[in-house]
Amino acid sequence: MTDAIITWVDGNDPEHRRKRNYYLRKEKGEGISHEPNAALSTRFNECGELYYNILLIRKNAPWIDRIYLITDNQRPQWLTETEVDRLGVEIVDHQVIFNGFEEFLPTFNTMSINTMFHRIPGLNPEFLYLNDDIFILRPVVKDDYFENGRPIFRGHREIRNFPLPFMKRSPWRCETKPDIGIVGLRLGREKILRAKTERVFLYHSPNPVVLHSYGKIMARKMAYNIRFRFRSREQFDPMHLYVNSMLQRKRCSIIGSDVAYFDPQLMPQLTLQSIRKLASQNHIRHACFQSLDEYDYVSRRAAFDFLEECVAS
């Protein structure tokens, strides 16, 4: 059996905004440093992406057992008890996965949350992790993510003989097909990632996780990583630590992309062109619409129209 985990927050909620601003001021007053963009509203704004995320999982990955939605004492208005039962969703509060570590709550940091999500009670031994802006556009099978129990990640490899910079992202290249976004790789102080070896940069796509392996790797620095309420340069990225640890142990596979990545920094006409072409690109099975709240109205409407068509087709 395979589950799915989605992390979600409604940053438009007045209570969440109040709590976020309180701790942001408090930590700044205490001299605690954050990433420059750690508190940007786009990290927390909710545009309705989750609705399509869940519906497309159920349509295109029916072999997924439970969908665990990790939240901070919140619930999407549309996700009624009836819909929870129909879609096989279980809402998991931060209090559950931070059990025994409640002093680090509330947290507004996905790096900290991702360090703990493997602690969901009853989680299956294998699961997919998705952000709420990642969508499974076309039918997939379990073998697309796991090969004989070994996770298959979407990304690319590079050889590096020196510690990588804090963040690395690919620029959008105006090509004939959607470009690929690269998730930033944080090394922190993890010696395993400082070795002169091959490294992996992940794409914005569903990440397959083996529960036992992930838990063992996170246990090394769990208490250290979760103490940051907002993103910090001192943290490591849990998923990148995991994939690179698995790579060095030859326990995973890396494949080329079947992922389309959209960014609000695109000119509107390029976004529209890419979305139109995506409909006919059957080899693209996943898409990430990053920071939809920052899209211009026309591009955002086009993105949602496309997702609606994917659900209805």
Describe it for me?
The chain has one domain (2-312): Alpha-Beta Complex (Spore Coat Polysaccharide Biosynthesis Protein SpsA, Chain A). Helix 2 runs parallel beside helix 10 (297-312), helix 6 crosses helix 8 (238-248) and helix 9 (268-278) runs parallel beside helix 10 (297-312). Strand 2 (64-71), helix 3 (81-87) and strand 3 form a beta-alpha-beta unit. It has helices spanning 14-29, 49-60, 81-87, 94-97, 110-116, 211-219, 222-225, 238-248, 268-278, 297-312, and strands at residues 2-7, 64-71, 89-93, 126-131, 134-136, 146-147, 150-160, 197-202, 207-210, 253-255, 259-262, 286-289. The protein contains ten helices and twelve strands. It is globular. Mean pLDDT is 87; it is low at 161-196. The protein is 31% helix and 20% strand. The strands form three sheets. A five-stranded mixed β-sheet has the order 3-2-1-4-9, sandwiched between helices. The chain has 313 residues and is α/β, with parallel strands linked by helices.
Describe the protein's topology.
Elements: E1 2-7, H1 14-29, H2 49-60, E2 64-71, H3 81-87, E3 89-93, H4 94-97, H5 110-116, E4 126-131, E5 134-136, E6 146-147, E7 150-160, E8 197-202, E9 207-210, H6 211-219, H7 222-225, H8 238-248, E10 253-255, E11 259-262, H9 268-278, E12 286-289, H10 297-312
Parallel strand pairs: 1-2, 1-4, 2-3, 7-10, 11-12
Antiparallel strand pairs: 4-9, 5-12, 6-7, 7-8
Q: Find the structural class using helix and strand composition.
A: alpha/beta
Q: Shape, please?
A: globular
Q: Kindly state the percentage of residues in helix.
A: 25-40%
* Fold-level CATH name: Spore Coat Polysaccharide Biosynthesis Protein SpsA, Chain A
The level 1 CATH classification is Alpha Beta
**Euclidean distance between termini CA atoms:** 27 Å
Given as residue ranges, the uncertain stretches (5+ residues, pLDDT < 50) are: 161-196
The total count of strands amounts to 12
Which sequence of strands runs across the widest sheet? Answer: 3-2-1-4-9
Integer count of domains: 1
Helix and strand element order: EHHEHEHHEEEEEEHHHEEHEH
**Average pLDDT over all residues:** 87
**Nearest-angstrom radius of gyration?**
19 Å
The CATH architecture comes to Alpha-Beta Complex
Q: What proportion of the residues form beta strands (DSSP E)? A: 15-25%
Let me know the largest β-sheet.
5 strands, mixed
Number of helices: 10
